[in-house]
Amino acid sequence: MLDRAGRVEMVIVGSPEQIVIPALGRERTGGGRLRGLRLVHTHLRGEPLSTEDLTDLALLRLDMVAAVWAGAPNKPPVMQRAHVNPEGDEGKPWVVLPHAGLDPDEVNFAEFIASLETRLARDTGGGTRGEARKAMLIHLSQLAKHKAEERLAELSELARTEMIDSVEKVIYRGAPHPQTMLGSGRVKELMIRAMAKGVDMLLFDQDLTPAQLKWIGNLADMPVMDRTQLILRIFARRAHTSDGKLRVELARLRYELPRVGAREAALSRIRGGIGLRGPGETTAETSRRMIKDRISSIEKKIARLGLGREERRKKRKRAGIFQVAIIGYTNAGKSTLLNAMTNSRVLVEDKLFATLDPATRIIRYPRKMEVAISDTVGFIRDLPEDLLDAFRSTLEELQDADLLLHVVDLSAAGFQTYIATVEKILADLNLERIPRKIVLNKVDLLDPKEVANQCARYDAVGISARDGLGVAQLATLVQEQASVIRAQNSATTNYGESGFSKMKDFED
Question: Which residues are paired to 363 by β-bridges?
C-alpha cells in the first residue's frame, strides 16, 4: 500500500487466492475525496483484476489498484490498473486501464489524482455529508412485487417531503439478516450500485437494529437512514407548537436510546486501579443516563400541557358544542377539507405530514347549532411505536369526538390499504365505538361511475375538497348527524343554540 509520494505505508501478505486488507480508518473519505493510498499487489497466475479487487477500489475509495504478474517468457512483467470512475457513464464506479509495463508512463500521477478528485467533488456537490440529497431506496421482504413497489413509492414520497431525491429503488426478497440486514454480499453489491448512480445516502424501508445500522454505516461510508428516522426528521421540521416539539423530541430520544452503544464505541471505561473498574462511566452509559433524564423531564412537561388541553375539551363539552374530528391517512386532504368547510387558511401542501399540529375551527349553522371541526395528524402504515406513544395523548383527544370523518384519497393506488391502516390504528386507540363516516376525496380525478361504485361500497360521501365539489352535501350530513346525536343525548347534554353562520350557507 503506497501513499501519493510513493512511500510504502503497509505491506500485506496473503494466500495465492486472496489478500485481506486491514481496517484503514475513515480519514480522507468524504464525498469527492479519495483515500490517498494505492494498492499494488501480485496475481500469481496472470489473471486480470478481479471483481474483488475492483470492489475494494470502490468501497475503500483507493486512489488506484494495480495487479502485477509475470509477462510472456523473456518479457518484462505486466501490470493492469483501475481507478474510480468520476463520470459513472459506464454503469460501474471504476475504469479499468489497458495492460502496461512497469516503466513509469508520461502521466503525472499527482496531477491525475488531483483532477480526478476535482471531478468527483463536482459530481457529489462538494462532498458535504450533511447536504446529502440523492438517496437509494431499499426494501427487503417476502411481499409480492407490486406490494413492495407500493411501499417504496410511499417511502419516496416521505423522502420528497424531506427534500431528498430518490435516485434508485432496489427490492430484495428474503428475511433480514440479524447483523447486516441484507447479507454482506448484497450490501457490497448495493454500495457499488450506489457509487455508479452517484448516490450519497442509503434509505431503508425497514427499521434497522443498532447492530445493522452500525455495520452498514461502517461499510457504506455515507449516511444510512431507516424509515423511522426519516419520519422523525419530518416531524421535527414540521412541528411548530411547544407540545408538538416536545413530543417529537420524546419520540426521537426513545428511538435513539437503544442505539447509543452502536453509535459511540470510542473511549474505554475510566479505571481507578489495577483490576478495578473505577468511578468512571463509558460514553455510552453517560449518554444513556442523560437521555433517560431528558425523557423523564419531557414526559412531565407533556403531562402539564395535557392538563390544559383536557380543560379546554371539558369547556367545549359544557358549552354543548358538537365535536367532529377529521382523520385519515397522511396527505389524503384533511387540511384542505377543513379549509373548505370553515373558510380557514390552515397550511396545505402536497406532501406527507404537511401539518402536525392539530387545528380546530367552529361552524355555526343557521339552525342554531355549533360544531367544532378538528384536523388531526395524519396516519401512516407501520407508524413507529415511539411516535404513536408520543402522540397517543393527542390522538386520545378523539375520544371526545361525536363524529369522525375518515378522509380517503380515492385516487391513490392503494387506498384500500390506507383505509385498513386507519381502521387498525383506531382499533388500537379504542376509538372504533365512535360513529364515523368515510369521505372519498379527489373524486374529480376519477371516472364518475367508479366514484359511484366506491361510494356505494363504503357507504361514503364523494367530494373534491380542493374544488369544493360535494362539500355542501358533507356539511349537511354533519348537521343531520349532529341533530340525531343531540336528540339521543338531550337528557344529559345541553348543546349550544347560539350564533349564526359566519361561513357560506351550506344549505344553498
Answer: 371
d(CA 250, CA 263): 19
> Does one domain contain both 227 and 244?
no
Quote the domain boundaries for residue 157: 132-233
If asked whether residues 465 and 369 sit together in one domain, one would say yes
Q: What share of the chain is helix, strand, coil (3-state, %, to 5)?
A: 40, 20, 40
Placement of cell 453509535 in the chain: 263
Cell numbers for 201: 445516502
Count other Cβ atoms within 10 Å, centred on residue 254: 19
How many C-beta atoms lie closer than 10 Å to residue 501's C-beta?
14
Residues whose CB falls within 8 Å of the CB of residue 210, separated by 6 or more in sequence, listed in order:
258, 259, 261, 262, 263
Predicted confidence (pLDDT) at residue 331 exceeds the cutoff of 60 = yes
Cell of 447: 371516472
Whole-number percent of the chain with pLDDT over 90: 17
Task: Determine the average pLDDT of the residues in 296-310.
Answer: 81
Residue 45, all three cell numbers: 497466475
Question: Are both 474 and 431 inside the same structural domain?
Answer: yes
- Residue 173 is inside which H or E element, if any? strand 165-173
Domain count, the chain: 4
Question: ∠124-126-129 over CA atoms, to 5°?
Answer: 80
Whole-angstrom distance, CA of residue 375 vs CA of residue 357: 9
